[in-house]
Amino acid sequence: MKKLGKILWLSIIATLAIVSCKKDDETTASNDNKALFAKVEEALGGKANLSSALTITYKSTGEAFEFQEDPEPVNGKVADFDYSLIYNLNGTQSKQSWNVNADYAFATDFSFVETIDHTKGKSEGTTGTFSANFSGFGVTGDPMFSTKLAARQKTLLMSSPIAITKMIAKGAIQSTKAGIINVNFNTSPLGFGSDTPDIQLVIDTDTNLPIKSQVLENDPLLGDVVYEVVYEKWETSNDLKYPTRLTHILDGNIIRKESISEVKINPEIENTELTLTNEEAFSYNANEAKFGHLSSQFHFRTLLQTFPIDFPVEIVTQSSPLALASELVANDNNVYRVSGDFQSHYTYAFKIDGGLLLYDSPINDRRSKVVLDKIRQDFSTDPITYVVHSHNHFDHTGGLRGSLAEGGDLIVGQGSKSFIENVLQRPSTVLPNPIANTPINVTGVTDVMTIGTGDEKVALYTISTLHAEEDDYIVLYKPATKTIYFNDLYNPGFINVFDTFKTEDQQRMIALAKDIVNFVDDKNLAVTTFHCSHGFTTLDFDFKTIRDISQK
Asked: What is the pLDDT of residues 293-348, one digit of tens each?
């Protein structure tokens, strides 16, 4: 298993202190940076040119990587992409026209256009495999939810030293370290108040050009992480310097590389290019936007893996005919599924000997809180005794702290035990930590673990699969109903779109289906029904479906 970034807070502090900082006195550092900022303005092309720069356009070609999905994707790469950008340099308006060639999780080509006009946002086109094939799931023309809008605005600002410099120039320069200038982001229309971490601009004191922008953010699984955009290969356009190579880094891991071309400052564009009417835009929610701002890279990472997870986490009801309602599992009054419109990731609650077992903790702690409230309202007030994770991929474990907020032991595959224990020791301060200072008992399963008695008995098995590390993946089997619970090895509805998938995706689906079928046969389990913590239709729970896929 890869070491996923820095584990200790000291490492995060070390990441922030990259340039030389000879003076610790805050007043001295601030005065030094006032003088340095004037040099930065001059190095970029002069204060007058910066002031007159209002809009920028360019084209970007890049690669995307993922570091939390071992052993897939191979070598960490998930996609190639390109986009053309029109950007208002006050950060409030933008238009990005994207083309993505994704390799993981599905080999998918897709294109879409995202327009942002202050708090109005619109997305047109398909945004990945699920958007193209599961329209009832709610992601065709993937709405510009407020979380995504804020995440895009913040990322675009951090990618533009000119926009950042213009923002700094509007306010007082304050900084605790020489060579690091705080951006006046939190007091801007893009910011969310002084209680949220501010963006910093790190300066090369030899060239007076910015090295990078950086900010402390939240990763739903890892907690506190540093997000950085590194600037390289400077060129000149309209007398202003601009970096033509951007590297996006999260917790010390490269997540995107971009090469920029055809940069134009103040190009001629139609006035309507960056404007939206209220009727065109998706409704804005400032509270949701704040969470997008504080976890800005989560949305990019899932998008470039072809399944954009940007859904309002509070929805636990069903209106779409292809969405699943939150309800008792068919033919088993002891199991409850929390799902709902737009939700691609489910949680199952099992009654076991006077307590509850939760299976999977998607996708963040806010969703886990909603899940627990729904379980308490409609299913059971029994205490949480166990939280079980199918595997350590971030979309299934991002809400682990929220799932453990009421107590319980955490059960994972033995292959994930040390990693999860390290995750629980990491600082998590950007967003509230529901289990702060609470010791959590983590149990690792190596083969099989049985919990409960009678009709409530469940067996937790580790399974060998190419989708997860050795001894990582846990499936849950309930003998009383001959039902198996899992995800990702096959997901409901895939049989209905198998013929539309590319050959490599079909082969991958067959291989993963074989993993679960071979496991069932090797263990001699009587299985008639399956349920997944992913899901897209209501009509596909017969285990024979998976056998059919595995034999194609």
From this structure: 999 999 889 889 887 776 678 889 988 777 789 999 999 999 999 998 878 889 99
Tokens for 540, please give them: 């596909």
Q: What is the structure's pLDDT at 254? A: 97
- Residue 317 included in any domain: no
In SS3 terms, 97-156 reads as: EEEEEECCCCCEEEEEEEEEECCEEEEEECCCHHHHHCHHHCCCCCCCCHHHHHHHHHHH
Percent of the chain with pLDDT over 90: 71
CATH number of the domain where residue 279 is located:
2.50.20
Question: What pLDDT is attached to residue 316?
Answer: 94
Question: Do residues 348 and 292 share a domain?
Answer: no
Q: Copy the structure tokens of residue 115.
A: 């327009």
Q: How many CB atoms lie within 10 A of CB 16?
A: 17
Indicate the number of domains in the chain: 2
Please identify which residue in the block is written with the tokens 């071992």.
Answer: 70
Q: Which domain holds residue 101?
A: 9-303
Whether this prediction's pTM lies above 0.90 is answered by: yes
Whether residue 310 lies inside any domain: the answer is no
202 vs 18: CA distance, rounded Å:
8
**How many whole angstroms separate alpha carbon 168 and alpha carbon 93?**
18
Contacts of 286 (CB under 8 A, 6+ apart): 119, 146, 192
